[in-house]
Amino acid sequence: MDEEYDVIVLGTGLKECILSGLLSVDGLKVLHMDRNDYYGGESASLNLIQLWKRFRGADAPPASLGSSRDYNVDMIPKFMMANGVLVRVLIHTDVTKYLSFKAVDGGFVYNKQKVHKVPATDMEALKSPLMGIFEKRRARKFFIYVQDYNESDPKTHEGLDLTRVTTKELIAKYGLDDNTIDFIGHALALHRDDRYLNEPAIDTVKRMKLYAESLARFQGGSPYIYPLYGLGELPQAFARLSAVYGGTYMLNKPECKVEFDGEGKVVGVTSEGETAKCKKVVCDPSYLPGKVRKVGKVARAIAIMSHPIPNTNDSHSVQVILPQKQLGRKSDMYLFCCSYSHNVAPKGKFIAFVSTEAETDNPQVELKPGIDLLGPVDEIFFENYDRYEPVNEPSLDNCFISASYDATTHFESTVTDVLNMYTMITGKNLDLSVDLSAASAAEEY
Fold first, then answer.
1. CA–CA distance from 132 to each of 144, 298, 320 (Å)?
2. SS3 8
3. Cα angle at 136 between 178 and 130, to 5 degrees?
4. Collapsing DSSP states into helix, strand and coil, what is residue 322?
5. The CATH number of domain 4-43+232-291+390-428, selected from 3.40.50.360, 2.60.40.10, 3.40.50.720, 3.50.50.60
6. Rounded to an integer, what distance in angstroms lies between the CA atom of residue 109 and that of residue 23?
7. Which residues lie below 8 Å from residue 429, measured CB to CB, with a gap of 6+?
8. In the chain, helix, strand, coil percent, each to 5?
């Protein structure tokens, strides 16, 4: 391997594949390597035999579950906001031509031991059983303020500077009770814990607007979309994009050792006795364990079921958010379900995931509130995995390391990490000012 590359990307997780696609489109010479013989890394989708091998070792899956190849079980299950940043990246890169999407049936929130549809507009707020009659009126006024808010039009600000006013102060102005604040903060603004209450309100208002805009795109039951055949399709689509623009792919490359010069700057990657030279390396935390630190742990359950999640209007695909306060925890719990309607399981089968930031070493006990909402399950698997973040200084060593995937079942935090890495690598921001209404490729999810 005498060639020199601008960037070598290690690992074919979704973040790494998006970056390799974006950098190839920018004209950089990219080599993409992975120690595995399949795409997706940590964010792969597994068939039933692969799933069994990973969690049950030598046992074969029972015949009653149907054909192995009809399953595409995500290892990092996440929905996409229909108007979110990942959709803008897909449209910007034209990757939509390699994928088909479908809207997700419902978004729900757990409140006082029950599952409720998330009200996302002033009209839905008036119908929601989450609130009493007077609270509904107050909530409706708050929703109208958020819907009308326009950063560049001071007339819509009602005299408030949302870059200085905290979320707690803004909500106090409308006199909303704790339950209402809970579902607004966690099920609409998609905050993972309650720190947002003491931070500038502008972030929460923008998040709520994103939720409402995403909901409006399909007039469906939720703001989310999800690819047919599972998330494993996404890394492959970006890999295809990279290849179209001259990127080179090598799977099944063992070891992949990153090489450094005397000053600690990356100079290449060695695998099977050959070294490919490069100026920069992009990778997931597993390729450079000495440059990351453990920041947490995700607990997850994966269940195969023969019915939709109860109390979700028979939704074939659904997200339920269980806010931390409702469970007496420090962080939220997420319930994600999809089924044969998204081609991830055989007809009549549903795949459900319960995930949370682990606070103990016992996922079975910790995930119980979410598992209790599932009803009877055919099979269930448990796992814990550690979350890592980079601690290196990329300007000194030219190593750009992604953070591990969090417990959330939506993509907003994932894409923020990718765009930050893109800016660090290229020195510029990705222009995502695409006209979503004109992007016909994205209209037929």
1. 18, 35, 22
2. strand
3. 60
4. strand
5. 3.50.50.60
6. 38
7. 419, 423
8. 40, 25, 40
Amino acid (1-letter code) at residue 35: R
What are φ and ψ of residue 268, in 5° steps? 175, -175
pLDDT at 173: 93
Output the pLDDT for position 2: 62
Q: Can you state the angle between helices 85-93 and 412-426, rounded to 10 degrees?
A: 50
Rg (CA), the chain: 22
Phi, psi (rounded to 5 degrees) for 350 = -125, 140
**What does residue 78 show for φ and ψ, rounded to 5 degrees?**
-150, 140
The mean-pLDDT minimum among 43-47, 167-171, 274-278, 439-443 falls in: 439-443
pLDDT at 439: 43
Handedness of CA 105, 109, 111, 113 (dihedral sign): positive
Nearest CA among 218, 231, 249 for reference residue 99:
231
Q: Report pLDDT digits (tens) over 194-209.
A: 999 999 999 999 999 9
Q: CB of 48 within 8 A of CB of 72?
A: no
The CATH-assigned architecture of domain 56-105+294-387 is 2-Layer Sandwich (3.30)
Rounded-to-integer distance, Cα 435 and Cα 225, Å = 18
Domain with residues 117-218, CATH architecture: Orthogonal Bundle (1.10)
Phi-psi region of 121 (alpha: psi -120 to 50; beta: other; left: phi over 0): beta
Q: CB within 8 A of 349, min separation 6: which ones? A: 65, 66, 304, 305, 306, 339, 340, 378
DSSP β-ladder status, 45-46 and 257-260? unpaired
For 324, phi and psi rounded to 5 degrees? Answer: -50, -40
Tokens of residue 93, six digits: 């890169």
